[in-house]
């Protein structure tokens, strides 16, 4: 298994620190706002990674993903207001009300796209004692200094600063300037403890007065606490590589003199029709809307099928094409069960073996899911010819179902493999019912049409009969 | 509005500290095991209380319910092993894995029975800094002492110890003995900070060495932090009155010299067929099983309809009777909409006014939900006669629906008021579909029967055709 390592800028053979076990940390959500599409993109990618390690490579995976419930500053800047404090003020809520609400929404979104819960999801505020200890240790070891209740990491003391991102101090200092109100020694020093702003709620007593942790130190403290001073894989979105992850490396060096992570993995950026998604550009799609529009399974199939560390572009046509591919797989299984004959087909069996080999090769190559899925589509094409002939038997069917069930432990989109479920895709169900209802309406059988409407409502969908005779729906 | 106050042992007129606002704290779940029926009983009761204050008395309610994720000791004893540490060891999990899993299950159960989330649900481990400060303050004020890394509250210094439970020190000391390995001065002193046991995971550095908080101090710290030194209502199960709540009062006295709570409310015990529910007695029902068996709405209607501070007994017959009552209300609305005539009926309007007055009287009398619901049933009986005659008009219908929608903000069981939902009771839907399917099967229309089966499966239910011709079902 090879993984691209941002640290070395190359694909490397994955070697775990502990035989049979993968210790993995992924930067989690800052719970100041509802989940956005970038979160879904990133966490589906790491869900695929964790499930592949578990189900194909037989590792025990211990997956830690934090929840940032304090310390992340507006604009991900070093100075400024805590995102949660600011948003809570705007919405006239206690910061914890905002946090609780967004944690609820976060789980709803991630559960919907079938990301398994990480083994543990520690919250930053559960680690204030340990964070204060870490900051003190950085001061004691000469890597941090206090000014007026703020504590900064002195990056000039960090030998390898820039090792992950390439942003070495000489490069950074060329362009850096201290703001007039900056109290820190050097422009690239970063806060590990911040003085509480007046009127703030999220604050704790510390040796440096009332304050709250810097964002970067939280991840260092939590990853070290749960996974040790050096662990296998650290993931996160591409945009976190600098300064967040660079500063995590700096902090580990300051605290323990260690490299914290063997493999740094970063997910590629998400765009909408080629443009970065942002509220100001008006192309912002909430996760809820995206799920309502495309369905959670289609969304997952599309995102899981894009290379995790390449950019991914969300566009109707691409999701529809991906959805159609999933439909071709479903269709193959429909015919596979229907046309089964009596004689074992060696050729079909060979195709399946080829698929298994190709799939694993592609996934072992830095989780190349687009190629792995292409191998599935190739198999479908080959198999369909044999299936049409009916020259195969139950054993063939069982072999194919068995293998696809294994693949589905990673992709989690093949609901049609479950005999009890026609389709688990709620949107598909609603669409089919609307068609059925429209036929009844055409035949003026309004009683039956109304019964179908009740079934649609029971699925949690609303429908609207448009003036042009079409029917729109909205999934709740 | 009168509330029974455990502190004064009488019903008292409710007077909030801040006009228009109710500050309310309820002891939450210790997340070492799945939710049990006692939790559901208690949190439905406080949900009804909070919703009544909001919707009928127009208060702003700020409802805090903690999550105990460390510090609760096996058997709720003062000495012994932390419940979460022990259970995690048994299940070979990191304690946080166990905690995360049980928090997930807790929300699933409480959401299912439609308890609104509290405004905030703080976790004990988010307050270790504040807990250590509180323990230090108790020592500094002479109310606590340290021995070998444990810190105990010295109850002999608490003037009014026993004020809530009646367990005054003279009564307690008559029966109390120090265990041979007890280090504390007096048998009734209780731990506010505990030395970490060897091999434990949940522990923090403190002025007294590595340790973790006592259970009682957590609630004092969290309620004070979010609601102030004295707040309006403190709730919890009856069994928490002593020692947990008595010790909360002691701690507030030790810390601030204050009475922390104006109204102490305690929910009555839950029994199953007259017997206390316990795993060892083999009559343990998980919340999931209870919801599958009776349906979340019926369970809520039954529990909300029992007096919150009286014992409640779970028995099939009682839940079925309660369910039948809910069915009578649904049936009234079915006929009400069907039989509507053209003339406004003053008598029906008067009945509704009477109901509104009686309902409020009963709810204002310490939330007497059984009597309040009896008033609803009386109205249904009176209204049904008029409804049968058809002598009422649309305005009557709207008045009745409007009032029941208000009532439903508290009870949350009248799904039939929503025009779009035939019945939101999944079990009811499944039952009706099974009946329909069996008719098709009787008529040998297996295609239609199979379509119905797909609808049942889509609802997340499994069905089993028994040899005797009946069909069983299981909701997932």
Blueprint (SSEs and pairs):
Two copies of one chain form a homodimer.
Chain A: E1 2-5, E2 10-13, E3 21-26, H1 37-55, E4 60-65, H2 83-90, H3 95-112, H4 128-140, E5 144-147, E6 150-153, H5 169-175, E7 190-195, E8 211-213, H6 215-227, E9 231-237, H7 241-256, E10 261-267, E11 270-272, E12 275-276, H8 287-294, H9 296-304, E13 312-314, H10 316-338, H11 346-364, H12 369-389, H13 394-411, H14 426-442, H15 446-458, E14 461-465, E15 471-475
Parallel strand pairs in A: 3-4, 3-9, 9-10, 11-13
Antiparallel strand pairs in A: 1-2, 5-6, 6-7, 7-8, 11-12, 14-15
What is the share of helical residues of chain A? Answer: 40-55%
Query: CATH homologous superfamily of the largest domain in chain A, by name?
Result: HUPs
The helix count of chain A comes to 15
Find the CATH topology of the largest domain in chain A: Rossmann fold
Helix/strand-derived category of chain A reads alpha/beta
Query: Can you write the helix and strand succession of chain A as a string?
Result: EEEHEHHHEEHEEHEHEEEHHEHHHHHHEE
Largest sheet of chain A: 4 strands, parallel
Number of domains of chain A: 3
Q: State which percent range the strand residues of chain A make up.
A: 5-15%
Number of strands of chain A: 15
Shape of chain A: globular
CATH architecture of the largest domain in chain A: 3-Layer(aba) Sandwich
- Mean pLDDT of chain A, to the nearest integer, reads 93
Task: List the strand order in the largest sheet of chain A.
Answer: 4-3-9-10
Q: In whole angstroms, how far apart are the ends of chain A?
A: 41 Å
Classified by CATH, the class of the largest domain in chain A is Alpha Beta
User: Which residues of chain A form runs of ≥5 with pLDDT under 50?
Assistant: none
Radius of gyration of chain A: 26 Å
Considering residues with a beta carbon less than 8 A from a beta carbon on another chain, report the largest interface and each chain's count.
A-B, 34 and 33 residues
Oligomer: homodimer
């Amino acid at each position: 298994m090879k993984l691209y390592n941002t640290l070395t800028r190359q694909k490397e053979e994955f070697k775990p620190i502990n035989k049979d076990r993968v210790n993995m940390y992924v930067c989690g959500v800052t719970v100041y706002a509802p989940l956005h599409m970038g979160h879904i993109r990133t966490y589906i990618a790491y869900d695929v990674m964790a499930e592949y390690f578990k189900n194909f490579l037989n590792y025990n995976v211990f997956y830690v993903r934090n929840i940032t419930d304090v310390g992340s500053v507006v604009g991900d800047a070093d100075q400024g207001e805590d995102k949660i404090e600011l948003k809570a003020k705007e919405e006239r809520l206690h910061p914890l009300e905002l946090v609780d609400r967004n944690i609820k929404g976060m789980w709803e979104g991630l559960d919907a796209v079938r990301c398994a819960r990480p083994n543990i999801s520690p919250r930053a505020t559960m680690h204030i004692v340990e964070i204060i200890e870490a900051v003190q240790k950085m001061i004691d070891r000469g890597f941090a200094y206090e000014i007026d209740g703020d504590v900064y990491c002195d990056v000039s003391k960090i030998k390898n600063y820039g090792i992950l991102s390439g942003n070495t101090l000489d490069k950074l200092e060329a362009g850096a300037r201290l703001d007039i109100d900056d109290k820190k020694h050097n422009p690239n020093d970063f806060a590990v403890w911040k003085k509480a702003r007046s009127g703030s709620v999220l604050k704790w007593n510390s040796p440096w007065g009332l304050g709250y942790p810097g964002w970067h130190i939280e991840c260092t403290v939590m990853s070290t606490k749960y996974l040790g001073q050096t662990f296998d894989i650290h993931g996160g979105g591409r945009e976190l590589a600098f300064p967040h992850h660079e500063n995590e490396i700096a902090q580990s060096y300051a605290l323990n003199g260690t490299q914290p992570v063997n493999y740094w993995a970063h997910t590629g950026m998400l765009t909408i029709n080629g443009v970065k998604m942002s509220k100001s550009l008006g192309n912002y799609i909430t996760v809820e809307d995206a799920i309502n529009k495309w369905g959670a399974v289609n969304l997952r199939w599309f995102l899981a099928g894009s290379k995790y560390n390449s950019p991914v572009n969300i566009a109707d046509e691409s999701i529809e094409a991906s959805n159609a591919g999933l439909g071709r797989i479903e269709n193959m299984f429909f015919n596979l069960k229907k046309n089964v004959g009596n004689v074992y087909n060696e050729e079909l069996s060979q195709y399946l073996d080829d698929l298994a080999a190709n799939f694993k090769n592609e996934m072992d190559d830095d989780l190349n899911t687009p190629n792995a899925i292409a191998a599935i589509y190739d198999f479908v094409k080959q198999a369909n010819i044999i299936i049409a002939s009916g020259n195969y038997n139950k054993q063939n069917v069982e072999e194919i179902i068995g293998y696809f069930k294994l693949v589905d432990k990673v992709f989690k989109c093949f609901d049609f493999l479950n005999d009890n479920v026609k389709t688990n895709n709620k949107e598909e169900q609603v669409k089919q019912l609307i068609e059925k209802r429209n036929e009844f309406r055409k035949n003026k059988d309004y009683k039956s049409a109304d019964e179908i409407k009740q079934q649609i409502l029971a699925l949690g969908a609303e429908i609207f009969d448009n003036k042009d005779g079409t029917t729109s729906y909205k999934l709740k």
